[in-house]
Structures are given as C-alpha cells and as structure tokens.
Amino acid sequence: MPRAVSVDIESSELRRSSRAAKKRQTYVESDDSDESASEAASDDEYKATNVKRAKTASKKRQKKSPSSTSRPSKSSNSSIPKDFEENYLYESLSQPEISIHELTLEWIEAYEEEPLESITTLTNLLLRCCGCIHLLQPHDLQNLDSAADTIAEVQIAFESQKTHEYPFISNNKDLRFFRKNVLELFEELIDISYEKGLLYNNEDDDDDEMDDDSSSLASPLMRNVLTWFTSLSTSTARPLRLISTVILLTIQTKLCHVMVNLISNQEKSQKQLTNIKAKNKKSKAKLDAVTNTIKSYHLQIETINEYFNDISETVFIHRYRDVDPTIRQECLRHLGEWMIIYPDHFFQSSQLRYFGWLLSDPSSQVRNEVVKVLLKLYRNITSSAASNYSLGVGFRQFTERFKRQMMNMSVKDQDANVRVNLMSCLVELQKIGFLDELEIVDISSHFFFILENKNGTEFSTKSKASEDKLKLELAKFISIANIDSYKRSLEKYSIYLENIGEKENEETKSQIEGFMKFNLLIQFLKKCSEYYQKKRKATSNNASKVIHVIFESLYQLPSYHKSWEVLVNYFLFDFTAKLTEGEGLEIKNLLELNSNEDKHYVLSFLLGSLESSKNIKATSTSEEENYESIILKLSNYIPTIQQISIKNADLFLVYMKTWNLILSESDGTKGIFTVLQDLEQTSLFNDLIEKLLKYYQNYEPAITENDELLNIYDEVFVKLLSSYNSIGNGGKVLITPEIRILVQNMVMELAGECTHCAESIFITSSTSEIEQFQSGGVIQFENMYKIASPLLKLGRVGEFINLNGFKQVTTFSQLLISKLQDQVNLERYLTTTPTHFLQNYSNITNTFKIILDFFLTLNSWTLEELMFTPANLQQNFDLEITFANLRHILSLESSLLLSVTSSHIKSSSIVNQLQTLIGVKFIDLLVSMKIFYSKFRKSNEFKNFQFLSDIGDGFFIARLNIEIEQRLLDIFLFKEAVLGKLLDIDLDRSETEDVNLGDLELEENDEFDANDSRFDEDDIADEDNATLTKSQEQKMEEKRNQKVWTAEKEFCVFSMKLFTLVNLSMVDSGLKSRIELNNEKIGGLFSKITKQNNPQSTLNNVEEISTDPVQTDQSIIQTVET
C-alpha cells in the first residue's frame, strides 16, 4: 500500500493503563476555549462535496459488480496519489447489501494473521469515512506511545485537502446506509471478538510485534483500537473527532451487552458451584472446573470494567462537553443506552449528573436528547412488572433536584420537541407518584397558558403536529389525575353504587359513575384555572373559553372516548327525581349542576368531543363511531340543550359554537340540516333557527369587531345566507322558505329599531342653538353611540344579503345621512371639548366605523347588481335615482376627513387613527365608483350615466381637490414618520412638509412589565440572574418587533390605498414619487409593494376588479400579512 503519512517514531516502552491520560496532550480538560478556537479554524477550511472517485480494486477482497445505488466515492482531489489504493473495508461498506458479519469475520481472520496491518486498515477506515486521502502505513502504528503525534500529522494532512467527502454524516437518503454499516461492523467486531476470546489478554499471546503493558488487562486488539481511536477523538478537526467518538461510544454500548452476558453466566456458574458443594459426594474435577470458570468470568468482567473506565475517562468526560452539539448529543444518547443495558454500573448519581448539567444546554438538539433519554429511563421504570414503582436512590435524588427545572422547561423551552418530551416525562413521574397535589395542578395549568399564548411571543410551535402532541401529553397528565380521584370516589361510594345497580338497573349505575368522573374533572379543571389566573395575576378569568379544546385532546384517550352521550345526559339529567335519600342525597349534592359555570364546563366538554369526533376519519372496518351517526342521535337532544343554553349568555356562546360545528358539511359528512331533512323534520330546524335569529335581534353587542358571539353568528350566516337567493335553483341550500321569511322580518325590525334611534337620539328642534353650541356637540355624540348596536347587527347581516331591497333600510339610511349632516359637527366638537373626545375616543371611532361601513356595504351591493346586469336590462336603471344618496355620503365623508386635524388634539396618534379610518372608507367608496365608471363609460345603456361625472365635483373623472389630497398625504406622512422612528431611520422629506414630523415622540401606552411571567417569584429565584435578564431582554425585543410590525402593516395598507388612487389618476401624479421617496431606506415589505405597483394595472383590468371594498380591503391585508 502506498505510504501516505510516515512518522518517525523512537521506540520506547509505555504503561498502557495510563496511555490516554499521559500522552494525549492536544486536549486540555480544564479549558475548552483553545480547542474551540482551533476547531472553528479547521471547520472553516472543511467543505463537503459529492465529487465522484474512480473505482479501484481492493487489496483484500475482490470487489463485487457495481450497484446502481448511490455510494461514497473516491475524491477527485488533484493531490490524490496516482497509485492510491482504496481501503477495502470502506469500499465494502459502501455497498448497501454487503454482509457485515462475513466482512467482519474476514477482518478477524486477517487480524489473527497480520495484527498490525489489520489495525492499520481499521484505523484508515475511520479516516476514509471523513474523506481523508492521507492514510496510515503499518509502521506508523508500531509505537502506541507516539499515537498523539501520528494523529496530529494526519490532521495536518487532512486539513490541507481542498475538498472532502463525508459520507458518515451525509444527509443524502441514498447514503444513509453507510453510517449504519460502519457502526454495525464495530458491533460485529465486539461480538465475534467476544466469541473468539480476543477481548481478553491471553497468556499465550505473542506480543513481539505489539506493545505490551503487563499492568493492563486489555487484549492486544482492544489496546490498539482504544489507543488510536481515542487519539482521533481528541483531534481539533471535527469530522475526525466525531466519527472516532461515535465508534468508541458504540463499542462501549456493545461491551455493556457483553458485560450483562458475563455476569449472567457467572451467576449461573456460582449457583452451579453452590449446588456442587451442597452434595454429599463432591466431584473434585467438576468442582475445580466450575471454580476455574468463575475465576475466568471474574477476570473477563474486570477486563470489561477496565474498558469502561478507559473509554469513560479518555473519551466521554471530555466529549460530553464538546463544542460540537452533535458530539454532545451522541454522548448522552449512548449514556442512556448504557444505563438501560447495564444499570448496575452506569445508572448511578455520578452518571445521572451529566443529564442535569446538559438539561439547560444552549443547543436544542442536545436538550432534546437529554429529555428523550430521561423519558426512556422513566418509562423503563413505569413499564416494569413491579406494581410499586421505585426510582432508586440516585435517580430519586436527581429527579428531586431537577424536577422544578423540568416543569418550567415543559412550557418555557423554545424547542417544541423538548416541551413534548418533558411533558411525557412528567406524565411518567405522575404515574410513579412523585408529584404532589400542587405540582399536579401547576403542570395541568400549562394547558391554559399554551392555548392562550399559542400565537404570542411566549409560546410557539413550528407545526400543528407538535402542538397537538404537546396537548395530547397534557391530556394524559390531566387524565391520570382525574382517574386517580375517580377511583377513590368509586371506592368511597362502592356500596351505594352496588345498591343502585340492584334497585334501579346497571344503566343508571353506569350513568352515575360517568357523571362522577366528569364532575371530578370539572372541579379539577376549575382548580387549575384559578391557579393559572392567580399565577398570571389576571383580573378576569378567560380560561373557561378554552375548556372545549382541552377536552378535544382528552376525548382521544380511551378513558373519555365515545363519552359524548354521557355528557349530554349529564347536562340534561334531573337529579330531583332520583338520589333523594341518605348517601344518595350526598352524591346528588356532589354531582348536580347547580351553577351555570358547571353547565358551561359540561357543554364545553360536549363541544370538544364533537370536534374530536369530526376530525377522526372513521372507516367501515374501524370501531370508531361515525360522526354522522353522532349528529343523528344528537338531533334528539338539540332542542332541549338550546332551551337551557339560551337562558345564559356564556352557555349560549358555547351552544352557538356547537351549533356552528354541527351545521357544517364538509368532506362528505352531513350536518344537522341534512340529517333533519332526511328525517323529514325541517320544521324542527326552522324552529331552532327562529330562536337563534330572535336572540341575535335582541342581543346587545359590544360595538367592536371582536365581539365573539357576533363573529360566531357571522360563521352561521355564511352557511345559512350564502344561498339566500338560490331557492328553487337546485343544489344544496340550508335556507328554507320559512327561514327566508324569518330573516326578512329580522332585517325589517332591525331597520325599524335603527330608524327609531335616529329619530330620537339627536337633538330636536326644541333644543336652543345656545345649548347646542355650549355642549360643543357632546350631546349629539353621546346620543350617536346608541345607534351603533342595532346598526352593527344590521350591517353584519348586510354583508350576506342585499339590504337595498328593503324599504325600511332605504328610509333609515336617508334619515341617518340627513341627521349626520345637519347635527354632527366634528370640528366644533374637537375644538371645544377635546377632553371629552379623548375619554370617549374608542366609542366615537367604533361608531363612525359602523356607520361608514354600513354606507359602504349598501353602495357595494348596488354596484354588484349593476355590474352583473345584462346590457338589454341596463335601461331599467336610472343612476341619478339609484345613487341619490351618494352625493350626500361623499360630502359627509369629505367633511369629516377635513374636520380632523392635529391642531385640535394633543394626541397625534389618536388623531391619525381617526383620520385613517375616515380616509380609508372614503378611498374605498371612491375607488369602487371609479372602477364602475371606468368599466361602463364607453358603452352602457344606463339612464343618466353622465350623472356620475357630476357627483362630488367630478371625483370620478378628475383628480381630488388639493385639500383632500393633502389630508390623505398627511395621514401617510405621519405613519411613515412613526415607522421611521421605530426603525431609527433618518427619512428624507420634501421642502413643503411639516418639519415637526422629524421630532415625533412615540407614545408608550404599554410599558413592558418585567413581572409579567408565567411563573411566580419562587420559580424566578431558581433561575440564574443573567438568564433572567436575558429572558426579559428577549421579551422586550419581541414586544418591540411586534410594535414595528404593527406600524409597518398599517403603513403598507394605507400606502396601497394611495397607490390605488394614483393608478386610477384620482390624485396628482407627483404623489407617487413622494410615496416612494423613502422606499430604499424603509425597505422590507414596503419596498416590495412599490416595486410591484404598476400604474396601468388598475385601469387596464377594471373589468376583473371587484367593486366590493370589503373584499378589496381584506385582500390588501392578506397580501401585507403574507
């Protein structure tokens, strides 16, 4: 074999037991920084490549025919010798179908004939696995004393290569077999060496060619393997260090199996010796043979122990804290295997401490490996046959010490897999009984935290699958607590329950037992919820809103699966008719749902069970209960459930979520409408809808977009009213003629209520002008709030059906426009009573939004009807009549826009928000009309089409007046200044702009609260102060980033609105250049928007653009968020 690296070695004798500790001076245990620096330098020079190598015949074995499967190839590095001969082990292991056992036997046979050359081949295998082309020669390995120097020269040569092939850790799926083959080779090597006695130092061994160490029990084979591999494990080149470390750890894992066999055999021989001694007639020959066998086993065990100590002291204790997280991970993974295989030696406090130290490792892959190993160890205990689980002294001490850290990390760790595995560990600890009651409540309360913060900065998962896994583990944890308390209650009331079974029937007994389990679950979750709210120092309890999500996970467990009907019966059960005497009365008091809160929990459980059932894909051969069959049975209970729920707002909210769920039809599953229709019970469906519409009509919503019940009604209306105009047209529709009439009656009554408010809430003519002036408009604005609630409900319905066809709606809209024009003076209000405005800003803004949205919705329906009117019917529409209110609406909105200036109010951000609201609605109205005008201006049959050119001083055919254009630009400039301030950017400005924008001071409405933590002061005290400070800094940075994103999103949305005006030629062309002035400085999303903006796109494609401003606005926001 050609010589690649030759090292002159002076012969000297060496004491083998101290070979690594004394000779490998390249690694300094007390200081990792030097090693890290050199490793980083060498890593920078290391590059992976897939360059193919020419095929070369093997020296030791004839190569088989080439396989089509990808395999490691010889590097094409120009420095490779022409006569380079490939390592035959490397070449053989590069074949996926190679017989590892036969290959290992071949190497063993060669070793028995030529030990030195075989060890050289084995060592060179490691070098080739790293892509090293500078191989060792047999004479390089003659002196074990110079191993460190020899490997140092190999490393220098290795690092001098320009390219490397690294198949051992290749991510190529076609090469993954290679690592498996290499590790299997060394496992077979240990197995065969054990069978042949090569692991032990036999007296007959001829060590003339190999170094001898009379004080060591190691065999020549193991002495050489450990010497050269451990030298490689101290290399500063990470590839060399990684592969040698992994192989040595694999060897030790296999030695653990050997040790277990040796101990078992020794115990058998010891029993045999005891039996021989117990016999009256003892056979001396047999006694001596067994005695010698025991001594032989003892010597072999001592030898393996020496290997354990050698690998642990020279490899593990250094590499477990290696700078490479992959090496640290491998160390921990193998340590876990050693503990399970040979616990007597490794499952000790001295070894467990490594898991504790690396539980807070900066690398998520290392932390995840730690918790995976811990999970295996805990499950190894809970899966044992013993009924009383025992942790052992060392493991108990370890768990006690790190239990709190594991609890905190199960919700705080950044890595989702770490959280999942830690939660699984806590599940096992609960099975063992290692957690007290308060700890169980604390861990269970994590569920509330996860659900309330899954979209926030404190908690995140990269995938829904990870989130579902974590929720399922938490569900298991809660289930164990619930089942434990349930078993205790069954035991307490066992006699009474048996009597119930005899007096009544087994079904009643089963019902009571089911109620008992769910009642205990309710009480437990209430306790967890209270605990969570106390920890968070919250003033209101919103945890109950996520109960259905918790039970959706619980329903997947055997203890709760298919229990939906038990929940329905519990919700409707009449306890007054039963359980009236003695112990039964006690159970009645325990189980009866006296409070609406308890009913809320049961109904939430039902919702969770239905959500879980709908997500389960049942097959014809599975035992899963079909979702449609559940709906069919549930339809018998729905009227009664609705009757009870409608009496309480919280209950009705859960009921509406349930109704919305069972109303949905997807993936071929039937909803409640189809089920009742098939049963010819549509009258029941009509009755249920009538009650829902009546509740909606009488409901007093919060005048915001976040009213939860209104949002749920929106989802119901989407399903119910999307086919409002489809009756008689075939297809699947959920609206019956009876429901259509109900909806029409509700719209007319809501319109009548709005009209009554408009007539009565504004100041009448009897109020003197002096009183009106002195009030500054306060009376008008306070009265105006009262119209918001009914108008919000009417407007929500108007998103799904055309309200223009209702005379009551038309009358109301005309009255509202007149009242707003005559009696609402926003400028005077802001000038005379700015304090009142600031105090009532939210109500004023929301009221204006509801009113402007209502006008926009009516106009959108009108435009949609006109856009789709056939040409031969267009003459039936007189646009002057159709758009009679449009002139007044435009005049009103432009007046409002010009009324709001920063000179009236000190809080410039609030003024800008009100300006933005009015400006956006004004732009939406203009754009929709301009698109309609552009589409039909060349050809149409509408009457008085020219009327559009006169509306609002010709808004639709000419540019906006300068004053309005400037006000819209002012809104843009303010948002630009806010974003620039947050990004700390010095923005460019034109000469005519307000110079004060550069000195804008941001308003801090919400300072970061350092005390806002998931954990209490005791938890924080357990953490290092530096870590705590870093955590706070991270949260502050996340909060700042969120504020920047909010400002950027608002800025970009408004910029796109202005671009639309520019593209439609409705503003001066110079506005575009001002919008784009700071394009490069701001960058990010705004830069993409300006680049993608095409001035001709809007006009050239007006026929394809929707005139629905609501849809347009939603698409803009979706684009920005994407």
UniProtKB/TrEMBL annotation:
InterPro entries: ARM-like, ARM-type_fold, Cohesin_Scc3/SA, SCC3_C, SCD, STAG
Biased amino acid composition, Acidic residues: 29-43
SCD domain boundaries: 316-409
Comp. bias intervals (Low complexity): 65-81
One example of a Gene Ontology biological process annotation: sister chromatid cohesion
Coiled coil: none
Protein name, entry field: Cohesin subunit SCC3
Taxonomic placement: Eukaryota, Fungi, Dikarya, Ascomycota, Saccharomycotina
